[in-house]
Amino acid sequence: MNIRCLCLTAAISFSFLMCAANKLPETGKQFPALKPFDDLMREFVRENELPGAALAVAKDGRLIYARGFGYADRERREPVQPASLFRIASISKPLTAVAIMQLVENGKLKLEDKVFSILTHKAHLATGTKIDPRLAEITIQQLLQHQGGWDRGRSFDPMFRPVKIANTLGVNPPAKADHIIRYMMGRKLDFSPDSQFAYSNFGYCLLGRVIEQVSGSDYEKYMRNEVLKPLGIHSMHIGKSLLKNRAKDEVRYYTRNNSTASAVMGKQIGKPVLRPYGAWYLEAMDSHGAWIASAVDLVRFGSAVEYFDSSKVLTKKSIGKMVARPKGIAGHDKTGKPKATYYGFGWAIRPVRNTGKFNRWHSGGLDGTSTILVLRHDGLCWAALFNTNQTPDKKRPGKKIDPLIHKAADAVKAWPKHDLFQSQK
User: Fold this and answer.
1) Contact assessment for residue 415 and residue 77, using Cβ atoms and an 8 Å cutoff
2) Reading across the β-sheet that carries 291-293, which strands appear in turn?
3) Dist. CA 323–CA 343, nearest whole Å
4) Where do the DSSP E strands lie in 122-162?
5) How far is it, in rounded angstroms, from Cα 70 to Cα 29?
6) What is the DSSP secondary structure assignment for residue 223, as one 8-state letter?
7) How far apart are CA 33 and CA 36, in angstroms?
8) CA geometry: angle at 287 spanning 285 and 291, to 5°?
9) Burial class (CB in 10 A: 0-12, 13-18, 19+), 266
10) What CA–CA distance (Å, rounded) separates 200 from 190?
């Protein structure tokens, strides 16, 4: 493409952005009492030049707000709907954690069970190497709390090396979850299990395989039938890597400047592709980052966790374990003082003063998507989803909007009594 074409393309893109800014599509029912949320979303999407967004809010287990802003697909000028599906990335982890705890409640697992006594994978060992004996010590609970022994900051995140791992094992890329496990079993841990906290996608990949091994069912099938369906959630499923496999009602994903990377799959392998579509293998990330969901789906799930007595998703005992402060450095600083925030079972947690209540949340991010799900101590639950992963100031939309949603919620003077969940039955 020559310079003239590039300039013309840029001009068209800028013109489109200005048009979008002046005529931002909005969907979903408006309620005057919830105007602070409308005002926030309109301003946030425009000022941060975002393609599209969805926000759902529940109060005391009732869905009171569900709206879409901007475009699900810019090229087709399709607006985001309240039911539009987005890649939720690491918000997948609370889902997997709930499934694990249900299996514990049903007597099929124990938190102290050793992970590699459950899984049957055979380690791939390089010539002259041995299995790290510390692998045998890793427990289910340590994986839930990111204390299994893998630190991507010291080594790497294997979930984003599907070609290298496939080539090492002599299989066709991209490497599947089972291939990645075999590869990682042949490497030394970055630290001894239970000695520190280090966020690990791979740890939750293992939990997905534990669910399969213990249940005898495919991870996605088990989750949809045993966890989501009983809660009335039917549209969630594992997403696909390539644009041609985009699901019905799923948004299209964008990066700033249409950034590219080498393809890890298909006929384009090794060639530049748009980052959200083939630069990593989403299907292998099922239990830690591959679900697609609507904001409404996530608020229904979050409300079920918050109001477990009525939803029966888990018992009070299990919820207590999920929010409990980890021992040692994972839950305390070097002086032994409790940290203001810590990671429980699938949730980041902030105790609220001495009330015995908690704020719980999880964010998610991949090329082309940014998400956040919040369970606030006062009965509010919200999910904000975006189909891009970076604002002009190089921040993640999901994290940037988080404090702003808190402010918008605090600005609501009277909460409506309606329940939009009822209209979906």
Assistant:
1) no
2) 86-87, 291-293, 237-238
3) 8
4) none
5) 15
6) I
7) 8
8) 75
9) middle
10) 11
Q: Please name which of 277, 299, 301, 294 lies closest in space to residue 385, comparing C-alpha atoms.
A: 294
Number of Cβ within a 10 Å radius of residue 169: 17
pLDDT tens-digit profile, the chain (425 residues): 333 333 333 333 433 343 444 679 999 999 999 999 999 999 999 999 999 999 999 999 999 999 999 999 999 999 999 999 999 999 999 999 999 999 999 999 999 999 999 999 999 999 999 999 999 999 999 999 999 999 999 999 999 999 999 999 999 999 999 999 999 999 999 999 999 999 999 999 999 999 999 999 999 999 999 999 999 999 999 999 999 999 999 999 999 999 999 999 988 899 999 999 999 999 999 999 999 999 999 999 999 999 999 999 999 999 999 999 999 999 999 999 999 999 999 999 999 988 999 999 999 999 999 999 999 999 999 999 999 999 999 999 999 999 999 999 999 999 999 999 998 65
- Phi and psi angles of residue 25, each rounded to the nearest 5 degrees, phi first: -65, 145
Altogether, the residues listed in the chain come to a count of 425
Choose among 115, 112, 91, 111: nearest CA to 103. 111
Q: Which of 57, 84, 71, 90 is nearest to 291 (CA)?
A: 90
pTM of the full structure: 0.94
* Residue whose token pair is 């600083």: 333
Tokens of residue 379, six digits:
């009965």
Phi, then psi, of 49 in degrees rounded to 5: 55, 45
325, two tokens: 């402060």
Q: Walk me through the domains of the chain, giving residue ranges and CATH numbers.
A: 23-91+235-264+274-423 (3.40.710.10), 94-228 (3.40.710.10)
Q: What is the CA radius of gyration of the chain?
A: 22
Q: What is the DSSP string of 195-207?
A: S-----HHHHHHH
Instruction: From residue 97, give the alpha-carbon distance in Å to each of 23, 93, 140.
Output: 41, 6, 10
Q: Where are the alpha helices (DSSP H) in 23-91?
A: 35-47
Neighbours of 345 (CB within 10 A): 26
